[in-house]
Amino acid sequence: MAIDLKTVKHISKLARISLDDKKAKKLAGDLNSIFEFIEKLNKLNTDKIEPLTSISETTLKLRSDEVNSKNIRDQILKNSPDDNKDFFVVPKVVE
Amino acid sequence: MTGILDLTLVELVGKIKKKDLSSKEVTKTYVERSEKSIKLNTYITEDFKNALQKADNFDNSPNFNKKLPGIPIAVKDLFCTKNLRTTAGSKILENFIPTYESTVTNNIWNEGAILLGKLNCDEFAMGSSNETSFFGNVQSPIGEKLVPGGSSGGSASALAAKLTPATIGTDTGGSIRQPASFTGTVGLKPTYGSCSRYGIVAFASSLDQAGPMARDVKDCALLFGVISSYDNKDSTSVNYKRKDYLRDLSKSIKGKKIGIPKEYRVEGMPKEIEKIWQKGITIAKEAGADIVDVSLPNTNYALPTYYIVAPAEASSNLARYDGVKYGFRAKGKNLIDMYEKTRSKGFGNEVKRRIMIGTYVLSSGYYDAYYLKAQKVRRLIKNDFDEVYKKVDVILTPSTPSSAFKIGEKANDPVSMYLNDIFTVPINLAGLPAISIPAGHDQNGYPLGLQIIGKAFDEQNILNTAYSLEQEIKFKNKINDWWM
């Protein structure tokens, strides 16, 4: 099955990565060769096989919901590309 | 007298404990050599001034009861280091300063070691040649314009070039073992759950493991004992009794059953690889091990499975890089436009390619055909190993299907690049431990490695087997300091 330009554009929308046409075309080529290689898996019958989601396959432990890090707001905000000292700042979302 | 740079980690620790050497002498020697080795491009961030200060502090009030007293160590730039830039080899994290320390590096500093700096790697550990790093490719000390392997390429290069006495990397599909094999060093990928993933920039969470890279098996055992610990900050960390791997290291493999999987004899594999494999088999046999032919029938499906599972997990893990909380941000007309431009400009081509694969296989209508299918095949691959381990103690294979290649040689063909990991990927899918040790050279003088795969949490057995082989192989790296 070939991945066409339209599909590439759709995936890039889902992945929130903007792509110009030239890059999208190149990527379509790459993805097709990668998926051609991946399609090998279809030769295997896996009807009665349970999927392996995790190697440990144990139920995750619960922990109490406690605050462990206190007063680190300034430290955290230091890494933000834009903030007003209290909050992260993003382009306006509500008109 | 042997120079400081020629001492193994275990020997250095001994000399410092006996006060034959000070931490300052050792640290200064490694800093000076690192400064003369800029051409290899191994460091993304140097922390030499602090390292020398810390060495002074150690010498002023030394604690010789530690396992790594005053030992300088550089680490892969995928481990978060508190207050020191951590980039994961990406533009999107170019200026990221962590507010916390990864558990694995914390364990190392708690044993008295000193951070030298952060080592180059493929962007978000996605690559097999260290060519995808935003900070440029790393050169191998083995030869000019030669890749050191990847993704822990900076770590392997720095280790082989003697810019650090030992180091740590991470291995999602071969990222410790393949560069170790390419650079004539020893690299261990521990059992999934053995080393905490807390504070390691995430790539594919069900596969990622941190591990030691060292000059020999003894050093590797020492460092592994330091970094492996139970950690409640990693939900998949496993609570079991860790051993003293160095103390219990034994050369004896008499009566050990070593499996040789026929599926690893792949089409088009160079004769040199086959030869090195035979050499390993012969040595093991002479040491008294039982060689058993085994079959891992689904080996062929491991790589396609990996290239569904790993990108799927990566696409979710990397969703966090949106230009809001940390990292690079591009200007956009609105919020969505900002996200899309940030991620387009902040990620390199290989990372984008993998996010796209991952997004596609998880997208509505394709999930069952790809992702679920891959998870089922992953079970088959694990079952193969479970079956074989009823009959043998360890498995012996080559580490890579070829020796190191030239920079740029495979850059335009993602599938041929992915094939590099054909022997290492199945181990991550099954969550098992495996070590790569140098076993010889090809006709160009480039190192070739052997991989020893163990049962889950049975690192001692693979370290012992590696140690036994190492004694007989007596590998010597051919490095002529071409970059100086």
Description of the molecule:
The complex is a heterodimer of chains A (95) and B (484). Chain A has 3 helices and no strands. With 95 residues, chain A is mostly helical. Chain A is flat and about 55 Å long. The mean pLDDT of chain A is 90. Chain B has a domain at 4-256: Amidase signature (AS) enzymes. Chain B contains 15 helices and 11 strands. Chain B has helices at 9-17, 23-35, 48-60, 103-110, 153-160, 177-183, 217-227, 271-286, 302-317, 335-346, 349-362, 367-388, 414-418, 425-430, 459-473, and strands at residues 43-46, 72-76, 114-119, 167-171, 186-189, 209-214, 257-261, 290-294, 394-398, 434-441, 447-454. Chain B has an 8-stranded mixed β-sheet with strand order 4-6-5-10-11-9-7-8, sandwiched between helices. A 3-stranded mixed β-sheet of chain B has the order 1-3-2. In chain B, helix 4 links the parallel strand 2 and strand 3 (114-119). In chain B, helix 9 (302-317) packs across helix 12. Chains A and B meet through helix 1, helix 2 and helix 3 of A and helix 9, helix 10, helix 11, helix 12 and helix 13 of B.
- From the alpha-carbon coordinates, what is the Rg of chain A to the nearest angstrom? 22 Å
What structural class do the secondary elements of chain A suggest? Answer: mainly alpha
What is the C-level CATH assignment of the domain at 5-43 in chain A? Mainly Alpha
Secondary-structure arrangement, i.e. CATH architecture of the domain at 5-43 in chain A: Orthogonal Bundle
Oligomeric state of the chains in view: heterodimer
- Major sheet: arrangement of strands of chain B: 4-6-5-10-11-9-7-8
Short description:
By secondary structure, chain A is mainly α. Chain A contains three helices and no strands. In chain B, α5 (153-160) packs parallel to α6 (177-183), α9 packs across α11 and α9 packs across α12.
